[in-house]
Specification:
alpha/beta, 2 domains, ten-stranded mixed sheet, six-stranded parallel sheet, 18 strands, disordered N terminus, binds nicotinamide-adenine-dinucleotide
Amino acid sequence: MNTSRRNFILDTGLTASGIALLSNGMSSCVSASDKVIVALIGCKGMGFTDLSAFLQQPGVICAALCDVDSNILNQRAAEVEKLTGKRPDVYEDFRKVIDRKDIDVVIVGTPDHWHCLPMVYACQSGKDVYCEKPLGRTIEECNLMVKAAQKYKRVVQVGQWQRSDPHWKNAVEYVHSGKLGRVRSARAWSYVGWKGSIPIAPDSPVPEGVNYDMWLGPAPSRPFNINRFHFTFRWYWEYAGGLMTDWGVHLLDYALFGMNQYVPKSVMASGGKYAFPGDAMQTPDTMMTIYDFGDFNIVWDHTIGIYGQNYGRGHGVAFIGEFGTLVVDRKGWEVYPETTSTSAQQGMKPVPLQPSTGKGLELHVKNFLDCIKTREKPNCDIETGAHIARIASLGNIAYRLGRQVNWDGDKQAFKNDPEADKLILANYRAPWELPKL
Ligand SMILES: NC(=O)c1ccc[n+]([C@@H]2O[C@H](COP(=O)([O-])OP(=O)(O)OC[C@H]3O[C@@H](n4cnc5c(N)ncnc54)[C@H](O)[C@@H]3O)[C@@H](O)[C@H]2O)c1
């Protein structure tokens, strides 16, 4: 870390000096001195990557870390101290972090089943929030989170950082230019070649230093099992939604954006544990979801254990047009002219790889920090994050019901489908409950 920046952080102290009221009437929690006091809830994986990106920005101070695993908490506190010269305060219970008046921003880096309550409570206490994706585990949570951000006038950035990486937007602009001709199909995929089977493991004693009941929180009570814990929680319905929501929110977001259509008429999905039938994962290792928009389809396609040969990319979005196909992923975008139809006579030229800046996360964090001062909407605002979390969730609901579902985007409800309606609900374990807003 650059020494002058380190000294700047050491020199600034930890207390925000005042609450500014900006001209548009939305209260900013950022102090007039341009310091931003940040706390991280959920410190192991992406949450700490996010915090590290925050700490690269001028004026950011990490005052507090919170985790229910004290091993991780202490390790991360030592890392922050090494980076900034000051050890943050550490907490096991996130409500104590939310109660602190000096904190401007909360980063929510917990597993999906633990995004909603810290985010809503933070909004209620006047903090702005950087919340990891998918915004909520269930549609009911997403709806409440939108309500909280709107009611308490908070700036919320959802961690879909592709929304701030310029090459994704440039790719969408190319699609919107019409040069591809009519696009009848867009395909988004995630082929996770590096991941193998998760062998079944017996339940075991809770590891020392872990508050497991607090890790479970609103999820059903059950004995500790290592497979359902750090990182691999994402393969269990009680905590997350598998690859359909994990990568789906990043990539379907751009598929919808590119097609300028946001609400499908119907959704169907098919898949299963085809690669690893007997293993410990609940969510499907192989799955396809078709979103029908009336005159075009968006297809979601995921596999675990295969890298795949979708344009040589393990993930991406392809807009398949009459004259050519544009493919975009985190590396960049390019266009392949159509060669097998009369459309090829349009004389379309290939567009070579237009590379990414490689700074998506950094730009996303910077955009959020700018917005907490201006009170403008950030690049992945709460409505955008909630919408795509709902759309990805619809894929899982269709898969779990084994049939087509029809969604009413205006009412945010299924059309005459009480069975599907049940899968919208959060169903929290007491004493946790969704706040009434
Ligand atoms: N934006 C991205 O590119 C990206 C990448 C990876 C993960 N993510 C998202 O980040 C989130 C976390 O994923 P991960 O892979 O980093 O998970 P992880 O399991 O590695 O880390 C989660 C941390 O949260 C802690 N935690 C759990 N419950 C808590 C509670 N009640 N209070 C405080 N701490 C608690 C855990 O102990 C753990 O340290 C997920 O929602 C995931 O989808 C986003």
